[in-house]
Amino acid sequence: MSGELTKARKKLNSINASLKMGKYMAAAQALNDAIVTVLSAPLMKSERDEFTSMLTDAVYALNNNKELRKVYPLALHFAPGEERKLLESIFEMRKVLQEDVNEGAQRDLEALETKKREDLERGQRHLDASEFEQAKQTFDKLTTDFAGDSDLKADIADRYHKAGLNEEAIGYLNDAIKESPESLHLYNRIGIVLRKMKDFPSAEKYYMRALQITKADEFLYFNLGRLYYDWQRWDKLIEAAKQSLAICPDFAEAKKMLAFGQKKLAEEA
C-alpha cells in the first residue's frame, strides 16, 4: 500500500503546477484520486495527519485560483475526517470542468471550420482571378493545416476541376484516396475527371478498384457505363448497364444506357 500512498503524495504535489498551467481538470482529478487512496488505505496517525495537511493545502490552492473560480465559483470545504464530503464536491467540480472542456473543444472546432471555410474561399478567389500559383499556395497550406482531411482534398479537387485544372484535381484526389481508401465517392470523382480528360484506361482502373470495395452500388456501375460510352466500348457499356439494373431494376437512365449500347453493338455487327 506504501506505493499507492507515494502516488497519492505525487498527485497532491502536482496540483499547484497543474493550476499554474491552467490544467484545472488535471488538478481536480489529482485531488480526486488522492482522496480515493486516502479513503481506502489503513493509515497510521502520522500518515493521516500528513494527508490531512496536504488535502487542506490542495483545497486552499483550488479555492484561491482566480481563473478556476471563473469556471467553478463554488468554494470547496474540508475538515479532518470529511474526505468523503470533499470527494462529492470534487465530483461536482469535475462535472462542471468537463462541460467547460467540451464547450471549449466545440468553440475550437467551430473556429477551425471557420478558418477552413475562409481559406477555401480565398483559394477560390485566386482561381477565379486565374492566380493559379497563389491558389496553389493557399490550398497547399490548407491541406497541411488540416492533414488527413480527405473530404477537404476532394473539395479542392472539385474546385480545380471546375477551373479546368484537371492535373491538379487528379493529384488532390489521389492524395484523398490514399487517406481514405474505402471512400467510394472519391473513386467516382477521379474516374469522372479522368474520363473528361479522355484518359479512359486510368479511369477504368479506378472504377475497378472501387468495385473491389463494393459491387452493390448501381451508380458506380452507371458511371462506369458512362466511361465506356465515351470510350465507345459498347460490349462493356452493356455489361455495366446490366449490372446497374441488377441492383436497381427501375433505374431509368441505366435502361436507356443498356438500350443504346445494344443498338450500337447491333449496328457494328
Could you describe the 3D structure shown?
The protein starts with a helix and ends with a helix. It is mostly helical and 269 residues long. Among the domains are: 2-105; 215-269, Alpha Horseshoe (Serine Threonine Protein Phosphatase 5, Tetratricopeptide repeat). The chain has helices at residues 2-20, 24-40, 45-63, 66-71, 83-128, 132-145, 150-162, 166-179, 184-196, 200-213, 218-231, 234-247, 252-268. Helix 1 packs parallel to helix 3 (45-63) and helix 11 packs parallel to helix 13 (252-268). It is elongated, with a radius of gyration of 32 Å.
Number of helices: 13
The number of E-state strands comes to 0
**Whole-number mean pLDDT:** 89
Beta-strand percentage? under 5%
Question: Can you tell me the residue ranges where pLDDT is under 50 for at least 5 consecutive residues?
Answer: none
Distance between the termini: 89 Å
Shape: elongated
Topology record:
Layout: H1 2-20, H2 24-40, H3 45-63, H4 66-71, H5 83-128, H6 132-145, H7 150-162, H8 166-179, H9 184-196, H10 200-213, H11 218-231, H12 234-247, H13 252-268
Helix pairs in contact: 1-2, 1-3, 2-3, 2-5, 5-6, 7-8, 8-9, 9-10, 9-11, 10-11, 11-12, 11-13, 12-13
Short description:
This protein is an all-alpha fold. It contains 13 helices and no strands.
Key structural traits:
Serine Threonine Protein Phosphatase 5, Tetratricopeptide repeat, 269 residues
